[in-house]
Amino acid sequence: TNFGAIRLAGGLDLFSKILGKPGKTSTKGEMVQELYDAGDRFRIDDYCLSDALDTYFIFLRVQVLMGHITLLREKELVDAAKAKIEEHSAREGTFKDYLAAFGYWTSPE
Predict the structure, then answer these.
(1) DSSP the chain
(2) pLDDT in the model for residue 8
(3) Across all residues in the chain, what is the average pLDDT?
(4) How far is CA 38 from the centre of its chain?
(5) Cβ neighbours, 10 Å, residue 13
(6) For site-directed labelling of 52, which of 14, 17, 43, 67 has its Cα 20 to 30 A away?
(7) pTM (2 d.p.)
(8) 28-58 burial string, b = 16+ CB within 10 Å, else e?
């Protein structure tokens, strides 16, 4: 946020959704303690990894906006990441909600 230069209600969740990514799914941050107490580490891991993925996809878009990569390169990197997520999901059973809501940004043109 450039040291507070940008204030936008919705944060990571909103930016993710603008880019077509899932953002927050069924697990919310305030649920983590309860999930931990219940021993549901799998869901906590899934929640944290999903946040990390959303951050990565936003980072890629910032790189486009700064002129460091092209939109085409961003799409290549997003496609590669999605393939890895699908591979991991098939092997470990994670990211089901994330993949169900995964989308791509489309130009408003």
Answers:
(1) -TTTT---TTHHHHHHHHTT---S-S--GGGHHHHHHTT-HHHHHHHHHHHHHHHHHHHHHHHHHTTSS-HHHHHHHHHHHHHHHHHHHHHH---HHHHHH--------
(2) 65
(3) 86
(4) 25
(5) 17
(6) 67
(7) 0.81
(8) eeeeeeeeeeeebeebbebbeebbebbeebb
